[in-house]
């Protein structure tokens, strides 16, 4: 096991209070252990996306943000115009006096979609957001497109199928068991 390091984090008071409640609910021994799990989860997602290579994906990026945040709306629009070939549609909802939600439908190579999503998610003033990616239906069912993760055996009459699927990029939202301290 590598050496443990300590580092400082600047965080809003109410955000930390809420995080501490989550830490307690999920029965983590410490805030640090919960943070380590979040970091590992992000790293796993990143590895999965790397392996998906340049496969074309469909994505929906949901963003919740404060539209009063300085220049945020302009920055968001500029980023989307810079990558207009990937932006299929945008749904904008005014959810309260301060907050807006945008759902951006994207289509493009895995890496490009992830990079655009990250650029938008990391803008100052974006409070929450998440990218969900999926594949066009014919790719999901066509083993030939990524045969390293699908094994199909067909008996020729089209009635008997044996599929073994291991989906890349699948979200691992299931709670980790907390035994790895
Ligand atoms: Ni709005």
Descriptive report:
The protein has helices at 13-25, 31-51, 72-82, 110-121, 137-141, and strands spanning 56-66, 87-94, 99-109, 126-134, 150-154, 161-165. It is an alpha+beta fold and 181 residues long. The strands form 2 sheets. It has a 4-stranded antiparallel sheet with strand order 2-3-1-4, covered by helices on one side. Mean pLDDT is 80; it is low at 143-181. The structure holds nickel (II) ion. Nickel (II) ion is lined by residues 67, 92, 94, 100.
Record the SSE blueprint:
Layout: H1 13-25, H2 31-51, E1 56-66, H3 72-82, E2 87-94, E3 99-109, H4 110-121, E4 126-134, H5 137-141, E5 150-154, E6 161-165
Antiparallel strand pairs: 1-3, 1-4, 2-3, 5-6
Nickel (II) ion binds at residues 67, 92, 94, 100.
So how many helices?
5
Which class do the helix and strand fractions yield?
alpha+beta
Oligomeric nature of the chains = single chain
CATH-assigned homologous superfamily of the domain at 56-137: ACT-like. Chain A, domain 2
Rounded mean pLDDT score: 80
CATH architecture grouping of the domain at 56-137: 2-Layer Sandwich
Radius of gyration from the CA trace?
20 Å
CATH class category label of the domain at 56-137: Alpha Beta
- Uncertain runs are 143-181
Order of H and E elements: HHEHEEHEHEE
| Major β-sheet profile | 4 strands, antiparallel
Strand order of the largest sheet: 2-3-1-4
Beta-strand segment tally: 6
Q: CATH topology of the domain at 56-137, what is it called?
A: Alpha-Beta Plaits
